[in-house]
Amino acid sequence: MRWTTDVSGSRQRGLVLDATLLNHAARADRIDLLGHYLKDIECWTTATVQEELRAGLPAHPALRRALDADWLLIDPLDTLESLQAYAGWQRRVGAGEGRHRGEASVFACAELRNGIAVTDDRAANRVAKTYGLEAHGTLWLLARLVREGVIVVAAAENFIESLVAEGARLPCRGSDFGAWCARNGMELT
């Protein structure tokens, strides 16, 4: 996919996924479909995000699907360099007492891997962009998949509806996806 090539054009950039997309996709029984959509992209998450998903298992056993997804690579962030990056992002996003640790870990992983962070926490994404990290939400990802011909608009709309049905707080419903993309400067063609 063209959009995952780094600025030098030499290597494909991976995605680093936060808990929100993985959580709702698993609960909607769409985690394998998400993996299919992203099959040509290296996809990562972090051990911190996995911990968040594990914590939700008693209430939502379907989260096991996300934990078992074989297309998703896990970064433990256990090297000195990664721990320093994680600590830096924790300070930047104000992580603590269970808040924003997942986003901080995703940002650290994306920074170290020259990846693109995918989280639906808009405030955290603004912080990431302030520090020069590329970070976007689920709707951006789906719009890119449509634009690249991986999926059609109707598939993106249906995917969004399935996430919303499981409690995802996205800025639009599936039926409003095209209009939302137009308002936000994301052409679908």
From TrEMBL:
- SUPFAM superfamilies xrefs: PIN domain-like
Annotated PANTHER family = SLL0658 PROTEIN (PTHR39550:SF1)
Protein's name in the database: DUF3368 domain-containing protein
One Pfam entry for this protein is DUF3368
Species of the source? Streptomyces zingiberis
